[in-house]
Design goal:
It comes from Rhizophagus irregularis. InterPro entries: BTB-POZ/Galectin-3-binding (IPR051481), BTB/POZ_dom (IPR000210), SKP1/BTB/POZ_sf (IPR011333), TLDc_dom (IPR006571). The chain has 468 residues and is α+β, with helices and mostly antiparallel strands. The chain is 39% helix and 15% strand.
Length: 468
């Protein structure tokens, strides 16, 4: 049986850190402010791959001093303690120094320390990281194996991008950072705003433009060519299909010369002939226009297009859906429904069937009001269904018939929503499907396969609609 005495061994080796009697190496750390650290080559070789390589070099063995000007004395003192003792307490260190330790551990090939510091910054220094995104990003994007912290930073920016993209530091972003942001599907910024930011960034990054030459009307062909060269890697990342026709005319067209010809031809064909582009990225970014547990944002855009009776790319305004009521959160209760939804203006209702993936819903363009069995007239209401939360191919819609507009919406304060006694939440908390003849002939397809039936919903969501 082998006896283990690691604790004593570690204690004795650790004591060498403060024993300068037999050191044979001096590490000079820092640039403007320098400090010398005595060390033992045998410890450095055993614990640090960087120094193992350096101390095995023939020329280096003739020297006993190493200069590391890009690592400050404060940070190297932390490194040396880790090397000698295997211990490190980062509790009282500034975020800036911990970030510096991350860079130093990468350069010195200290993989264990590098992994630990990266996780420490994410788990323990998140507030500091979020306040210093640009500083952190410029450091970590230069480190090959720092994907975890890179992704954390970019993901945090995506969670609240407005302060970041409007900051004065944004035009000075490193190109790799900007590329990492723009390629993400979860960068929840409207494409027209992203385009504006990219143009500003490109102007700032292009010699001869910016503060020196900020008036686009005075640019020469060579100025446009230089800007095109700057922006070239980023153009394929822009989701041009997300621009409205007005945004295309006002924002894209003036910069036609900086967009590759093949891409610009596809943009024009898309807007003028509705030809689906082949190379343009058609995946919309996951902009949280709706915080729904039942449908994805892309389905909210489809519903908005039904409201305006237009194609999605031709919408005149941007819509946002604010949650008013959710049965799993607020309880399946008529009084609660009425308290939260009455008087809120036009609303979208979503209903989840309990035994299938089907989503049903209706659009009330008027208001939910406290009435006792009254019908309200509108020609704009409709009911619909999706096969599941992501169905953008087989969805069905039934609009109120013009001749029956006076029966489009029924308001009964003892019940929940009621789309003309066709789709409604009864006082017994069941969803009922009926064909009263008020909605068009597609009503049977919309309510299939539960027409004439009723069920207790798995979930109900109601959203107030805003247009911007």
């Amino acid at each position: 049986m082998t006896s283990i005495f690691h604790s004593g061994l570690l204690k004795d080796i650790s004591s060498l850190l403060n024993d300068a009697d037999d050191f044979n190496v001096i590490i000079k750390a820092g640039d403007e402010y320098t400090k010398e650290f005595p060390a033992h080559s045998v410890i450095l070789r055993a614990r640090c791959p960087y120094f193992k390589n350096e101390l095995l070099d023939e020329k280096s063995t003739k020297k006993n001093t190493f200069n590391i000007p890009n690592i400050t004395p404060t940070i190297f003192e932390m490194v040396l303690k880790y090397i000698y003792t295997g211990e490190l307490d980062l509790t009282n260190h500034l975020g800036e120094n911990i970030l510096g330790l991350l860079v130093a551990s990468y350069e010195l090939l200290l993989e264990e320390l590098f992994i630990h510091v990266q996780e420490y910054l994410i788990e323990e220094q998140a507030p500091w990281v979020q306040k210093n995104f640009v500083q952190v990003l410029h450091k970590v994007f230069k480190l090959k194996d720092c994907e975890k912290l890179q992704d954390y930073c970019l993901g945090s920016i995506c969670a609240d991008p407005q302060p970041f993209i409007t900051s004065k530091k944004f035009p000075s972003l490193d190109k790799d950072i900007l590329y990492g942001l723009l390629k993400r599907d979860d960068f929840p910024v409207e494409e027209s705003i992203i385009w504006d930011c990219l143009i500003k960034w490109g102007i700032k990054q292009t010699p001869g433009l910016g503060n020196v030459n900020g008036d686009r009307t005075k640019w020469s062909n060579s100025n446009y060519h230089a800007l095109k060269k700057t922006l070239n890697p980023f153009i394929p990342l822009i989701r041009f299909a997300e621009f409205s026709p007005a945004e295309y005319f006002d924002k894209i067209r003036p910069y036609k010369t900086v967009i590759p010809n093949n891409i610009y031809d596809e943009i024009e064909e898309y807007y003028f002939k509705s030809v689906k582009p082949k190379t343009i990225n058609l995946t919309p970014r996951n902009i949280k226009i709706i915080e729904s547990n039942l449908i994805k944002p892309k389905l909210a855009n489809i519903i908005a297009s039904w409201i305006e009776r237009k194609d999605e790319k031709d919408l005149s305004v941007k819509y946002k859906f604010d949650l008013l009521y959710r049965s799993s959160r607020d309880g399946l209760n008529i009084n609660t429904f009425r308290t939260k939804c009455n008087g809120q203006g036009r609303c979208l209702v979503l209903v989840k069937h309990p035994n299938s993936a089907k989503i049903y819903g209706g659009y009330n363009p008027l208001d939910f009001v406290n009435a006792n069995g009254l019908y309200y007239s509108t020609t704009e209401s409709f009911i619909f269904s999706f096969e599941d939360s992501e169905d953008d191919q087989y969805m069905k819609i039934s609009r109120v018939q013009a001749s029956c507009a006076n029966y489009a919406i029924c308001e009964q304060n003892t019940q929940g929503f009621d789309f003309g006694n066709t789709l409604y939440l009864s006082s017994n908390l069941n969803i009922y499907f009926r064909n009263q003849g008020y909605y068009d002939n597609n009503v049977s397809n919309v309510l299939d396969p539960y027409l004439g039936g009723n069920f207790v919903p798995a979930e109900i969501e109601v959203f107030k609609m805003k247009a911007s």
